[in-house]
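Please, structure for the following, as C-alpha cells.
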Amino acid sequence: MADVPTTHKMTLTRRFEVPVADVWRAWTEPDLVRRWWGPAGFTAPLAEMDVVVGGRSLVCMQAPVGMGGFRYYNTWTYTLVHPHRHLEFVQHFTDEHGNPVEPSSVGMPDGTPFEVPHLLTFVDREGTTEFTVTEYGYTAPEVVELSRAGMTQCLDKLATVVGST
C-alpha cells in the first residue's frame, strides 16, 4: 500500500471592527470580493458568485505587472452556506472557464492539493466580527505558511474594504 501523505491545515483568525453582516457580504457579493481578493499588489478582475449549497463561484486574482501579470483562477464550490455564521467550500485552481487544473500547472508549489476544503466562521462579538478561516489538506508545512501569508494579506485588504462600506 502506498504511503498516504500527512496533511496540514492552515487556520487564521481576525477581528473586524464591523458587524458580521458586513464581513459576510465581503465574502459573498461580487463587487466587494473584487475589491479585496488576492495578496498585496494583486487585483481581482473577476468574481462570479453563486453562494448556495452546490453553487460555484469563479474568482480571479491577477499578479502585478512586475510579477508578470499572470491571472490565477479558482472555483469555490459550496458545501455549507449558513448566512452570517458559516461558509464551507472546496477550492480548485482552474482555467479561465472554471475547469480544474493541477496546481503545479499554474506555478503552485509541491504540497498544494488538487482541492482545498475551506471552512469560514463568522462570530458576532458585541457588534464586531471574529472571523476564522481554516484550509485543509496541504501536504507540506511550507505551503501552509505560503497560504497563511497570502490570506493574511487578503484579510488586510478586506479590513480596508469593510471599513469603507
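The chain has a mean pLDDT of 94. The helical segments are 20-28, 30-36, 141-163.
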